[in-house]
Structure formats: C-alpha cells, structure tokens
Amino acid sequence: MSVLATKSIRLSVICSMLCLFFSSTEIASAQRSTVVAKKEVKQAGLRPMAIPRGSRMMSNAEVTVKGRYLFYNNCSFDDLSDYDAIAPDKEPLFDGATATKINYSSYLLGINGIVVDFESLNGEVDVDDFEFKVGNEDDSDSWSLAPAPVSIETDFGAGVEGSDRVTIIWPDSSIKLTWLQIRVLGNTTTKLAADDVFYFGNAVGETMNSDVDARVDADDVSAVRSNLSGFFNVDIENQYDVDRDGRVNATDVSIARNHLSGFFPLKLIQPSSSERPGIGFNRGVNFGNMLEAPNEGAWGLSVEERFFDLVVESGMDHIRLPISWTHHTSQTAPYAIDETFFSRVDWCVDQAVSRGLKIIVNVHHYDELNANPVTETPRAIAMWEQIATRYSGQPKSVYFEVLNEPHAAFNTNPALWGDYLAVALAKIRETNATRKVLVGGVSYNSIGGLLNLDPPDDPYLVGTFHFYEPFAFTHQGAEWVDPSPPVGTLWINDRVSFGSRWQSWSWNTTFTPTIGSLGIEYTEGWAGARFHATTPVADTDTLKFTIDAAMSLRVSLRDSDDVEVFVEDFQTTSGTNEYSFEFSSSLPISDITIQNLTPDAQPQFQLSNATLNGNDVTVPLLASEEDAIANAFLQAQIWSITHGVPIHLGEFGAYNPADIDSRVRWTTAVRDWSETLEIPFTYWEFGAGFGIYDPNGNAWRTPLIQSLVPEFTP
Asked: Which InterPro entries match (predicted)?
C-alpha cells in the first residue's frame, strides 16, 4: 500500500473520531475541523478548483499581498489574456473605509473575476486558502457565503514586478448588485502573517454620476444614451460601456434601463469584519539552553548573531526565546529586572525583527512561581509589567508567552493557574491590547493540560502545547530525568503500543510494541496490564480484543469515580481469537485491566484489535506509534475548535542518545502531522542536546533539519 493510501486511511479514521465530538452542523461551522480532509485532497493532487501553471521551491521571504484587482471576465478585452481585462480605474475597499465609485463596477456580468498578486508566494494556493462572502451592509460578519469560484489559477512570476499572480473566476452574473468580500487566509499555505481582507462591489448600469450613492436611475440611462460611441471603440474604463464590448450602443442603454435600483441600490458601505483566529507563523525553533540558563553561557550556549542568519537560511520563520527572568529580577519590590540583562533580550528581539523573523518572548524556568503561585504572583506580575511595557512598541511579529510549562502547585490546584493567567493577561493588555499571547495548560504544557484549560475570552490568544511522547523514547539517557529512561528504545512508525488516549498503569508487566499488535508479558503472578484513560470514555457498552495464546485471565473495568463496574474471569484458547464483553455503566470508563489470573509469570502473548464500542462510538486502546501522534494532535485540534482559539506546538524533540534514524522518523512524523492539521510548530531546540545545528562544528545536523524543512539543502 502506498504512503498516500495509508495516510488517507488514517485521515478517514481521524475524521471519524472528530465526528464523535461534534455534530455535522458544528463541524460545518468550525472551519478548522475540515482541514484534515482538505489537506489530503491537496496531497493527492485532486484540485478541481485549482489550475496550477508552475511550481516553486519554498522561499524564506515573508509573503505579502502586493496587489488586488477586479477584472471583467468574458468581455471583449480578455480575448488574449484575463490580465488585459483588469479594470485600471477600480481599487479595493478595506475595512473601516467608506466605499466610493472606485470600489465598484457597472459590469453586466457582475463580479466574475478577481486577481491577487502575492510577493514571493510559497507554493500554489486554492479554494481552501480563501473565504468569500456577499452582502450590502456595514457588518460583513453577517453576510452570506458567496457562490463558489469555478477556478483558481496560480501563475508564478506573472504579477506586477515579478510577483505571483492568482486569478479567481466565478460564473457570469452569479455575483451582481452586491458587495463581495475576499478574505485571503493567513495559513501554512499562503504563509501570510494574518488574513488579508478586501472588497469590490457591483451595480449594473451605474455610470458613476454621483459621489453620494450608487443608485441606478433614469439619470444613468440618459447618461448612457448621451454617450453612444457610434463607430468608435471605447477603452475598458468607459463607464457607459456596461457590457464591456468596446462600444457604447443601444444594448448598453437597454441594460441600464433593465437594472434600475428602485428601493434596493448598492450601498456605499463602511465595512467591518472580525479578525479570524490565526497565529502568523509556521515553522520555527527554540533557542534553548541560552537565556533560559541562570546566566547566559552556563549551559554551554550563548545567543550568537549567526544563529539568526542560520534560521533565515533554513527557511524557518520564527524563534521561541526561552528566558529565565527570575534569575535577573530583584527579590524585593518593585522587583526591577536587571537593565544589562534586559538590554541583552532587546538585542535578541531586534536581531529577529530586523531579519523578518517572528520571535516569542516567554517566561521560562520560574520555579518560585510554580512552587508558590499565591505568594509569588506580585513579583511575577511586576516582571510582566516591565516586559510588556518594554516591548509595547515592537511590531506584531513579537509574541508573548505567559509561562513555560506550569506545574507543581499549578498541577495540584489548576484553578491557581487560571487565576494567575487572568491577572497576567490583564497586565499585558494594559500596554499591548492586540499582541498575540501564548498560553498553555498545566502538567508541563501537556495536551492533557491544554484539554482542561478554559481559556480567557481574548481574541488575540494562542493555545500552546508540548509533545515528547513516547517519553521513554524522546528522553532516553536524559541526565536530568530520575530515573533516566534507558538508551536503546527505537521508534518505528507502524509499531503498535498504547493509544494516545491511554496511559499504562500496569504492574509487573512488560510490553513489546510490534507491527500490528502489542506484546504483553506478565513477569509475576497476578500481574496486570492496565489501560488508564486520560479522558474517560462515555457511551460505550462493549469491550473487544484479540489474543493469540491460551491463558487464564480476568478483565475488569472501572468508571470515572474509580468504581469497578465490570469483572469477568475467562479462559482464552490457542490460536488468534476475538473476545467480547458486554457491560453497563452510567459513568464514562476510565480504566481497563487485563490481569494474569495465575500465581505464575506468563510468556508473552499478542494483544490486537482492542476497542471500546458503543452505538456511535469506537475507541481504540492501541495505536501505531505514528497514529498515536495523529490522535494526540487531533485532541489538541478539538480543543482549538471548541474554544475558537488557534493552537501552536511549542516544543517537541528527541534527545541525542536516541538512535538517529528513529529520531528522524519521529521528528518527521510530528512535523508531518502538525502541518497536516495546520498546527504551527517550534522545534526543541537549536544547538544543544536535541539540536538541529552543531555550533562547535559549524554545521547543520542534516537529517534532523531536513525532517523539519524537507526542501532545505544545507
């Protein structure tokens, strides 16, 4: 089976899982929930709405919209090229401005063509990279969806000054006597830092004879009749040539007469639209072990100017700058941050901004706050007041992150994290009303912590999470972990282990992931393989699994109150057979245990096809190692959809004692699923134990950097 086919199956499973959480109506209204299927269509090359004319390697240049044009498709001026039919006298309308005659046309066929020029577009765009709405009121959020385009063409280098031109075409007369909103989405395809929104209007027969309205009336009919061109051709700007055939004649008079506005003229709107959730960056890297150390250089690395150039060279677009502010802040009020250290951070911010890189300024390794949130809050808020004030004049390419990996007391009482987050965000908003601010959940920014986070109501908030699963693989040999996971654990995409929704709470049991099944060995009598749900599973009544050996076993289930709701002793037979158990529980299931029912150790057997099932629910207990990544990221995406907050993968990486081939496979899979689900990421980290660059040897670690930026050749 091809890689694409395998991924298609996985995507269909993920989409099915998504449906377990949302109704079809909710999915239709939640645009991010459709991105999985959309992305797969793109990868398969099935673009009925896109007609690519060329190709381009990824560029490091930041993409901007350089031109927005109206053109008259299917008129006499576009015989040779659509570009010859661009209306030179028309300009786009933007939010907050009042419409004038330069923003709308009188063309008989309505708005049937738009051209957008991108400066250094990073690849082809298609219908999924735009939103189109129609309406005639100031509040464009209340407008209806526009008819779908019939084609979207990408023409690299064909725009003004060599920019990349995208041509969008609608059916003739499908958008008439109204305004069209074009929203170019800021996403991983367009590489725009934010959505680009503009408008064009149409009032058939309007001769632009008034500055105060766009009404088509008898004066317009008379104006057309008075400006007949006879045997002479007119140019495309002629406002009396309503059908744009190059002549003003009786046909144009008739068109104007048949399109009198009456009580429903095109309004000279002053549009406004809500900002669509987004982040503004895509691929990036953490400058770890630098300013997060108690003193810069103490952990073997200092920030160097060349590091910023190397990030630009790689094609990444942002840096996360972990900073341990607490080591440079006074312990007594007013809790001043050391000016020399502050200036060092200033320099880092300026280095990033001057190169067009986004940069995340965070608070890292704040042990005092994690240990004693209540008593430490005044000092922490004083830090944020100084940081926020200091960088309030920086462009929107500078982001804030409230706190890296809240844990300790925040884990014990997550409400403390919610309380602190509200106070810190309020302080930031005093001087930075619209700056993007990243926030994560407790338990070290885990996905589980994110799922339990009820974010503040803030349109400029970004959710963030970290991913280091399986921990035994990513942190093998890590000196700071006690006990340190042993070196030698491999990561293989299709090998089966616990699903992302489950943790092992087993005892006296060892597990051997294999292709297609999980090997289980009971090392002592009465041992148990216990699957603990990170989020209890509701609405199920049947447990099924397959075992390949004859054994005496007990299966038991516990609910979310830790009450045993089902237990059955049973005997398996030799060969590979399926076993099914029906149960009844009013509460969601939190634990499933398959226990050795003998006093002796038992040889390894294979468990496969293990699922909890209900009428509309199938929840797997096992997953391939790659599927575990996809399923985990899906949970984060569901949180994003539920709360209307975009999400960011802030850290992921595998420590260098691990097998390099496994590290590359794992990193590639994380990057691939992150981008498939359109989750921007920041790899951990640049030049230390997880690093993609060797600062001593002045060389990229090629397999790792290419697992993050496949098109980059060091």
From this structure: Dockerin_1_rpt, Dockerin_dom_sf, EF_Hand_1_Ca_BS, GH, Glyco_hydro_5, Glyco_hydro_5_CS, Glycosyl_hydrolase_5
Is residue 41 pLDDT above 80, yes or no? Answer: no
In SS3 terms, 369-417 reads as: HHHCHHHHHHHHHHHHHHHHHHCCCCCCCEEEECCCCCCCHHHHCHHHH
C-alpha–C-alpha distance, residues 116 and 159, integer Å: 8
Burial (CB count <10 Å: 0-12, 13-18, 19+), residue 512 = middle
| Strand 509-514, strand 681-683: pairing | unpaired
Q: What is the pLDDT of residues 605-647, one digit of tens each?
A: 999 999 999 988 899 999 999 999 998 999 999 999 898 899 9
Question: So what's the pLDDT on residue 81?
Answer: 75
For residue range 88-121, list pLDDT tens digits in order.
999 999 999 999 999 999 999 999 999 999 987 7
Check pLDDT > 60 for residue 32.
no
Q: Which two tokens stand for residue 705?
A: 């950097």
3-state secondary structure 271-288: CECCCCCCCCCCEEEECC
- Cα(107)–Cα(9) distance, integer angstroms: 47
Residue type, position 391, single letter: Y
**Residue 473's beta-bridge partner residues?**
none
Q: Could you tell me where the beta strands, DSSP code E, fall in 468-523?
A: 496-498, 502-504, 509-514, 517-522
C-alpha separations of 399 from 29, 302, 321 in Å = 28, 21, 10
Cα 594 from Cα 598, distance rounded (Å):
12
Mean pLDDT of 359-371: 98
Q: Which of 28-42, 212-226, 641-655 has the lowest average pLDDT?
A: 28-42
Q: Which residue has the tokens 């407008």?
A: 143
| pLDDT, average across residues 636-662 | 95
Domains of the chain: 47-258 (no CATH), 283-474+629-708 (3.20.20.80), 500-620 (2.60.120.430)
SS3 91: coil
Q: Which residues pair with 329 in a beta bridge?
A: 337
- pLDDT at position 188 is 60
Specify the length of the chain in residues.
Answer: 714
Please determine, for residue 4, whether its predicted confidence score (pLDDT) is greater than 70.
no
- Condensed to tens digits (0 to 9), the pLDDT of residues 562-590 reads 999 999 999 999 999 999 999 998 899 99
Task: Round to whole Å and give the CA distance between 586 and 559.
Answer: 9
Helix (H, G, I), strand (E, B) or coil at 317: coil
Taking each helix axis as running N to C, give the angle between helix 625-643 and helix 3-21, from 0 to 180 degrees, rounded to the nearest 10: 40
First to last CA, the chain: 32
The answer to whether the peptide bond before residue 483 is cis (omega within 30 degrees of 0) is yes
CA atoms of 40 and 10, how far apart (whole Å): 11
Q: At residue 520, does pLDDT exceed 50? A: yes
